[in-house]
Amino acid sequence: MLGFVDNSFPVQYGVPQWMIIALRTLGFALHAAFMGLWYAGIPLAVLMARSQNLSLRQISRRLMLQMPVIVALGVNLGIVPLLFLQAGFGPVVYSATILVGWFWLAIIALLIPAYYGVYLYGWDGIPVDKPIAPWRLAVGIIAGCLFVAIGFLFANGFSFTFRLERWETLWERAQVAGAATGLTVNIDDPVFWPRWLFIFSLALQTTACWMVLDASIFRPSATVEDRRLAARLASRIYLPGFVGALVFGLGYLYHLGQSSGAQISAVVGQLPGVVPGLVAVLIPIAIGSVLLNASGRQAPLSPKTVVMCVGLHIVYLVCVGFLRIWADLFTLQLSNRYEFWGRPVAFQWSPFLLFVVTLIMGIAVVSWMIVQVLRNLMTTTREAN
Questions:
Q1: pLDDT tens digits, residue range 120-178?
Q2: How far apart, in Å, are the Cα atoms of 1 and each of 216, 228, 262, 327?
């Protein structure tokens, strides 16, 4: 079994272990903030586009017009957690992606038509004065299915990346004459399904927060009724998302602990996991309460309240990301097959400073892009009205 992982590489890390964990956690949160909008947002937008309610069709229209930029930001921000995943666990990640090689390459093959699909869906501005055209509906359904399939493939690969005790079984199942075929499937693992469904539940919560943010901040022409409708819709999406995230998150930790020979309390009960675990439960309760209360009031949510909820949701994503990484580290420690914390560190300033400079430049460019998109959407909305 040890032949799957070269435990002697890397000889030393270029940055401290805590920095690898911190930047991977932050990168996951930023990626998840945009990823959730296409993962759950596209299917919801397609459903709303079929509604007879003009306001719901307007919410769908705005989300799909924003989608090309959202997908671009989500894909590019996904590089950051992958970069530090490879920096800290290169041999483990490399071996895991070899086992799912063809499925890993299929992600690119699916992403290209999915990305073009969201462009095609909104190529002429998506008129809302009449129900969605059949061809546009078909394009939206296909794009949504492709993004869900991509999430499924990612979950298939990452669900066993740190579960080295399963690798020999998975390799034997898919090998031919001793060679890995790259067709490993991990769906019989009890950890897989709650992990995948947890990420989708998280995406529902993110989409709900975006809907109230868009209606309250980015859409100045929105009426009071439009903002109240956005709050009602967001509460109906957020609360099932919260319940799903709680149930599937606990299910994931439970099965992970059972398969690793440990209890769930050992996974999150260690000191670094206590505070993020509590925050990950309390924050969605607070946001859900605000949305539920707003859905029954005549007055819409104030912009300050909306910004506060979105900020709390980002903190929630950070805590969830840390807990997931901490659970992965816990199972890796139990397997005792890859050394992470005890490996020496020789700080490499040149690549790190290059990373910091390009990151700052990237944030500046992305911020400018977002401002331009929002200005264009505001102008388009005024002209439509």
A1: 998 888 888 888 899 999 999 999 999 999 999 999 999 888 888 888 888 888 888 88
A2: 55, 57, 21, 22
Quote helix, strand, coil % in the chain, to nearest 5: 80, 0, 20
Distance, CA of 221 to CA of 380 (rounded, Å)? 11
Helices (H), 167-223: 167-174, 192-213
323 and 280 Cβ atoms separated by less than 8 Å: yes
> What's the chain's average pLDDT?
88
> Could you give the CA distance from residue 100 to residue 116 in angstroms, rounded to a whole number?
25
Instruction: Report the amino acid identity of residue 218.
Output: F
Q: How confident is the model at residue 60, as a pLDDT?
A: 94
Asked whether the beta carbons of 111 and 150 are under 8 A apart, the reply is yes
Count of Cβ atoms closer than 10 Å to residue 282 Cβ: 13
Q: Any idea which residue has 């709050």 for tokens? A: 231
Alpha carbon 48 to its chain centroid, in Å, reads: 22
Question: pLDDT tens for residues 320-352?
Answer: 999 888 888 888 877 777 888 888 999 988 988
